[in-house]
Amino acid sequence: MSLLAGFDLVTEISNETILKLLKKNLQIGGVSVVPTFELTLPISGGGASGTAHLIVKSLDLDLNADDTMTLSLGFEKTSVNVTSPLPLTICPLDGTLAITAAIILVNAGGSNQQVSVNMGSATVAITYSAQADATITQDLAGTPVSPTTFKSLAVQALTSFVQGVPSPTVPMAFSVVPGTDGSLTPSLQFEKLEVHCIPNANRSQQALGLFGILLAANDSHGNHANKTGTAITAAHDGMCISISPQAFNKLVFCPAIATALSTSPSSLPPSCGSNTHFSTQGVTVKSITDSFATGHIDINGAVSKSGTCYDASGTFHGTIIFTASGSTLTPAIHMDQPNVDVSIPWYCWLVAGIVLGPLGLVLAGVLDGVANGIAGSLAGAALSNALGGGIPGVSLGGLSGASFSGVVITTAGLTLQGSVPVFVSAPFLTPEITVAGSVTTGASHIVSSGTFHTQLWCMDHAKDYPYTEYAQNQKGTYNVTGQLVTQPFTPHFSLQVPGGPIQPLSGNSGTAVLSNVECHYPMPLATGGNAVVQDVHIGYFISGTTIQLTNTPSEGDYYFYLNATASDCNGNPLKDFEGDDMLSWAQVQFEGDHVDIGGDYAADEQQCAAELQKLLQQILQNSKQWQYVPTWVQVDFPPPEQLIQYFRDLVSINEAVADEILIQSKIAHGNSFYRAIFSPAATQPNLLRTNQSAVAQSQIAALTSQIASLTEQLAKANAARIATSGQQIER
Amino acid sequence: MSERKPWVKIDSLEELFKHEAEILKRIEQIPNGGNLFLIHPFMLLADVGVELSENAQKQIIRQEPHLSGLSAVPYNALKASKAKQNFRVHLKGLFERKAPK
Asked: What is the b/e burial string over A142-160, where b = at least 16 CB atoms within 10 angstroms of the residue's CB?
């Protein structure tokens, strides 16, 4: 297997990493292709139109020998809904949708080329499971459409759609200037660049290769077909960069020597320049060459040194190896003793001292500088540059954070092994249906009005407050949506009172009667209303996945549950992950009887609330450990959870005053009170338990005396209010 | 090659210079001869069959004071070594010709 196939620089990126890049950057139908996901695609072609709804549970990538990639989308619970020329639904289908598209280099402005996927000429193939084949045959029976025609139309339609998908932005761009020697650092510039797949039957051995020529003289070199296997060794997120000996010499080795000696490569002797020699630290180097061997780089050269009574000339040999960690390459140099012939005119006592030892040290010093220069240039920018990150204005995207794991040197080239993790956030989605909606008030008419005469506890006198009672016709509109379920589906609705039987709704419309429902009425005002257990009548109208529910206003305020299950186009129940029928529910609250208290009531209540808050705050300050003194909730449509916690805090005080405050609060909050007590928050006893347990017994005595004081104040107000309460006028 | 039997007796530096060419030729024929000369000239000269008188040795040392502190240990080690030396000395002369002081 050829490492570089005649190219100067080859960057290989693993199938795994490319797949992650695609997951990060490719969207089909506006949806990121991170399984599990669902797509609704328009179908148009062959005289038919409609939609296809795919649930994609897996995504695999193949990098093919013909420089295309195949994205295989494993789909399940998929449906095709044809609307024209005849209504037809085929479901559920499972199989594999294979999208094959060419991987190409496209112009990215100026001399830059960017890796891209040519979705415009993508082809599509669909493989159905045996069960899906049977489903197609069954669902098409009796229609003028044959299974073969259906499959052909499906491929045509999906091909047409896929070809319209924007090509994903692969964040790998490179500068390519033909006819000019390129560079490795500080920025990577190719003379020629090709992108090819490195195929293998095993996906883990597939890679995308960027085959580059750096030296203009090598323009005609390279045949990617000679690279028959990837050099990547990392088990995950692998990548590697290989450089040829020639490119290494010209673009790494010689510049490193020149830098170490503060000169230019052309001023050096062979193999870097045409000069006869260069001198450093009293030593004349007549040649210096690099060559790759297994595991190391050989450095060979010729050297001479002359003195007053000697002329020494010889050769030297050193080796450089690299260890890699993270973003650092660390060179290790071994310098052999130079092989030197010394000519002396007479007994020259200097020569041994000069030539033995020091000459080798000087050469080792030169080599050390060279090795560090090589390591620096390779580690500094080569890694990110070779991954297409060195082009200003082109986003690095997911290919930042590459790191080295090793350096492999063979006679074929030097390979930096590493990995480049690409983080893809995968949403955790589960198959489910959801019922959601709201209740709105339609017709509303006054059933009574009058004057509510009362003295709020913080007021110094009783006041009259006008009130109006309304009968409200309400309509709840709820819709069922599905996630990762076969579309279209048919919902099946039922109603239920807590603790009562489930009452399925039959047909598309009718009136359901729920028995033994506790209905609340806001009147009489003085007591904060009352409750009646009775039958309620709920009208319903179902259209598609939407249901409308209507109340009978005279039945007051109550709540119940709207349940929904669903079945697919063949009538099979939709199942969840555990194989159970999917179920969703929503709590529906009707408020048929409603009272508005006018005048200064709201303002007065707020004033009392503020004073109550002061008292409660004082309790809080006096007992620092008392953590659950109720905090007054403003009368402004508070969230039920907030209000229910407030009520529970009141209850947890377990003092008479709390009941008084509770009534005041209930009147003040009106509808919000019922929303709160009907809400799911009201069924979470942990709040109350927590509050009670949080109160240290030792605090109770201190708190009791303070609350007793508050009780006295409220008791006076309460007595006055009861004595003068409510003159109500019924209409 | 070692010549235990002297082929020439040298009593002065001047006589040594007279036979310099022949002596160099014989040194060149000895493995690592140049290196051995640097380590211990007197032992080498003896090995190539040059018998130096006490006077000749004194004249040589007077001219080359660095010739003191010589040791037979490295000389014998190199002489016994069969390995190729990284550092090879080639002699073009024996001692520097200097004007008499």
From this structure: eeebebeebeebbbbbbbb
